[in-house]
Design a protein that fits this description.
By secondary structure, this protein is α+β, with helices and mostly antiparallel strands. Helices cover 37% and strands 14% of the residues. It has six helices and five strands, in the order ααβαβαβββαα.
Length: 219
């Protein structure tokens, strides 16, 4: 990718998070402190991106300092992927995650469940649990209306550190207050970890009560 195109895409993300009224204060901090890792690909549905992205995740984990109290994110951008609806994006997201899992030969993080219907579920890759945030330009949620199809990988352990530091509830309250101000409502599928499966939150779509996650973990 040409450097000019890379710089342009990066500036668009920074504008979306920093300059716009994005509700996630953690995302704003990550971008303000340059604690994000942005990798750019063409198409989320391509099989060719799976192994390179698994390598991106491995490299990210190898360099991550487990003792750090700073929040970091790995951001994967698919610059050419477009969707007509939240449901179409959701299907593409879970197909992508399924392929990552199928090609990942590392054991599931033992700290979380691999059953997507379990309240203690979190998505595991390269042996570490991640909270996944899916975004795309056509999202019905303004906070998920990123300039490109985007999958954000946030380490589950980072949220646990926030809880240990005693600041998680305050951050959650601030984010939901800002989301309410931005859109007039908070996403109805949001729930605290352990009270309902976080799989419902990954795509940003307000999934139905009878929704079941299409992901299937290997035995």
């Amino acid at each position: 990718m040409k450097q000019l195109e890379l710089n342009k895409i990066q500036l668009e993300y920074r504008d979306f998070i920093i300059n716009k009224k994005h509700p996630c204060v953690m995302a704003k901090t990550v971008f303000a402190m340059n604690k994000y890792h942005l990798n750019i690909y063409d198409d989320i549905s391509s099989d060719k991106v799976i192994m390179p992205i698994l390598l991106d995740i491995k490299n990210y984990l190898d360099k991550y300092d487990d003792k750090s109290k700073e929040f970091e994110s790995l951001i994967i951008c698919f610059k050419n992927s477009k969707f007509k609806s939240d449901l179409e994006f959701e299907n593409a997201l879970w197909n992508f995650l399924q392929k990552l899992h199928d090609h990942d030969h590392t054991a599931w993080d033992s700290n979380v469940s691999q059953d997507p219907n379990n309240p203690n579920f979190s998505f595991s890759l390269k042996g570490k649990a991640f909270y996944i945030v899916g975004m795309h330009p056509g999202s019905s949620r303004l906070a998920r209306k990123a300039p490109y199809c985007t999958i954000v990988f946030n380490l589950h352990s980072q949220f646990e550190k926030l809880r240990q530091m005693g600041i998680y509830k305050n951050i959650k309250k601030r984010i939901r207050k800002r989301d309410m101000a931005l859109q007039g409502s908070i996403n109805p599928v949001l729930a605290d970890y352990g009270s309902d499966t976080e799989a419902k939150q990954y795509s940003g779509r307000a999934v139905e009560k009878e929704w079941t996650c299409p992901f299937s973990a290997k035995n």
